[in-house]
Amino acid sequence: MTVARYSEIGFMIPASVIVGYVLGLVADHFLHTHWIYLAGIIFGAVAGFYSMIRRALQSSKDAEIEESAESDEGKPDNRGGNGPNAG
After folding, report:
1. What gap in Å lies between CA 66 and CA 50, rounded to an integer?
2. What is the DSSP secondary structure assignment for residue 10, as one 8-state letter?
3. Closest among 14, 22, 8 to 58, alpha carbons compared
4. What is the pLDDT of residues 35-76, one digit of tens each?
């Protein structure tokens, strides 16, 4: 996993919370309320965690695929013959 992926995961939750907070403030302003920003913060946190978990699972799958591809490089082809048209 590269440094870029780690930093992306580290910024996901705070960025999601900030976006939820700002959208909640905008909704509060237009709807003349004072509580929607709290719902925005909660929604942003949930969305951030969901996104982080999805990204971590995808990275795990990518690592497994790379690992299996590296282990298969040295193995001989079990199809037999001396080429694709051997038969």
Report:
1. 24
2. H
3. 8
4. 999 999 999 999 999 998 998 888 888 778 877 877 766 565
